[in-house]
């Protein structure tokens, strides 16, 4: 039957249903950049992920991808060095690190690691990792996460993340030695200086507070050694505004939402 002028043609409901079902079966559109996908999977920071991509070790749906800015969907198969990776929920753990524990995810010599102190599946499966390092005998604030981008920015010198240490030395320090820490001492990997340093009463001149924003290996100990003293006790009491107040040595807790938001604001991460 021919439709009369002014009449709307009848809808073919079966055709409409098939069209809707076809749209539902279509592959979802790309939802995010590949480097962010890898960061969410805990593989690396976005910058490091870009290096992995350009290095030709990342595959998407079986094809090597080297183009920056590649976008992927949630159901794409992404592999790094032949191992499939999937995005994870982010975890943020604050540990009051005790002495004698190694700040690493595993130790070839069988020593206790910081992950051994955290009774969580995320730790047992090596999903989280420490942000920076504290040497084996240093205690205090340690953040562990699988948020690769946040970890990268917190550790990068350009963001100048504050670290405050309580330092006890074998012998009393003089005013001149304290001033040397302020103005800078020469280490084997270049000069280093305290952003702020002061005696902590009432312990006397063998106990100081020292604030830096760098994070070189054993930096505080080496700075103290450079002025002729030896550290007998070292504790990190503040890292990027995080403290272990109310958290006993060797214990851990998850970060609160407002702490996570503050860390992300600190390093300009949305």
Description of the molecule:
- The chain has 270 residues and is of the alpha+beta class.
- It folds into 3 domains: 32-85, Structural Genomics Hypothetical 15.5 Kd Protein In mrcA-pckA Intergenic Region, Chain A (Roll); 92-157 and 244-266, Pseudouridine synthase I, catalytic domain, N-terminal subdomain (Alpha-Beta Plaits), CATH 3.30.70; 162-239, Pseudouridine synthase (2-Layer Sandwich).
- Helices cover 25% and strands 26% of the residues.
- The protein is built from 8 helices and 16 strands.
- The protein has helices spanning 13-25, 34-40, 46-54, 121-124, 148-155, 175-183, 219-226, 257-266, and strands at 32-33, 58-60, 63-64, 71-72, 78-80, 83-85, 92-97, 129-130, 139-145, 163-169, 185-187, 190-192, 196-200, 204-212, 231-239, 252-254.
- Strands 7, 8, 9, 10, 13, 14, 15 and 16 form an 8-stranded mixed β-sheet that branches. Strands 3-2-5-6 form a 4-stranded antiparallel β-sheet.
- Strand 11 and strand 12 (190-192) form a beta hairpin.
- Helix 2 crosses helix 3 (46-54).
- The longest helix has 13 residues, at 13-25.
- The termini are far apart.
- 26% of the residues are buried.
- The model is unreliable at 5-9 (pLDDT under 50).
Q: Count the domains.
A: 3
In CATH's first tier, which class of the largest domain applies?
Alpha Beta
Q: Structural class, from secondary structure content?
A: alpha+beta
The general outline is: elongated
What is CATH's topology name of the largest domain?
A: Alpha-Beta Plaits
Through-space gap between termini: 60 Å
User: How many strand segments?
Assistant: 16
The helix/strand series, from N terminus to C terminus, equals HEHHEEEEEEHEEHEHEEEEHEEH
Number of helices: 8
Q: What percentage of amino acids are in beta strands?
A: 25-35%
> What multimeric state do the chains show?
single chain
| Biggest beta-sheet profile | 8 strands, mixed
What's the overall average pLDDT, rounded?
Answer: 87
CATH architecture of the largest domain: 2-Layer Sandwich
Output the CATH homologous superfamily of the largest domain: Pseudouridine synthase I, catalytic domain, N-terminal subdomain
Residues in helix, %: 25-40%
Low-pLDDT segments, ≥5 res: 5-9
Radius of gyration: 26 Å
């Amino acid at each position: 039957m021919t439709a009369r002028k002014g009449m709307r043609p009848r809808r073919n409901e079966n055709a409409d249903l098939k069209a809707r079902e076809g749209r539902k079966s279509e592959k979802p559109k790309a939802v995010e950049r590949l480097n962010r996908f890898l960061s969410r999977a805990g593989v690396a920071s976005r910058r490091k992920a870009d290096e992995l991509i350009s290095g030709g070790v990342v595959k998407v749906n079986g094809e090597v991808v080297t183009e920056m800015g590649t976008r992927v969907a949630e159901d794409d198969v992404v592999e790094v060095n032949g191992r499939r990776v999937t995005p994870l929920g982010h975890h943020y753990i604050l540990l009051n690190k005790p002495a004698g524990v190694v700040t690493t995810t595993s130790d070839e010599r069988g020593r206790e690691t910081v992950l051994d102190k955290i009774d969580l599946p995320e730790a047992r499966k090596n999903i989280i990792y420490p942000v920076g390092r504290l040497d084996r005998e240093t205690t205090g604030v340690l953040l562990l996460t699988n948020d690769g981008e946040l970890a990268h920015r917190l550790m990068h010198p350009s963001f100048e993340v504050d670290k405050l240490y309580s330092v006890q030395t074998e012998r009393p320090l003089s005013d001149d030695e304290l001033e040397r820490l302020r103005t800078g001492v020469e280490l084997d990997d270049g000069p280093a200086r305290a952003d702020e340093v002061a005696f902590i009463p009432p312990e006397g001149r063998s106990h100081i507070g020292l604030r830096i924003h760098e994070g070189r290996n054993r930096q505080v100990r080496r700075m103290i050694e450079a002025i002729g003293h030896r550290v007998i006790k070292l504790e990190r009491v503040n890292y990027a505004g995080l403290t272990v107040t109310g958290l006993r040595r060797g214990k851990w807790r998850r970060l609160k939402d407002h702490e996570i938001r503050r860390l992300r604001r600190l390093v300009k991460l949305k």
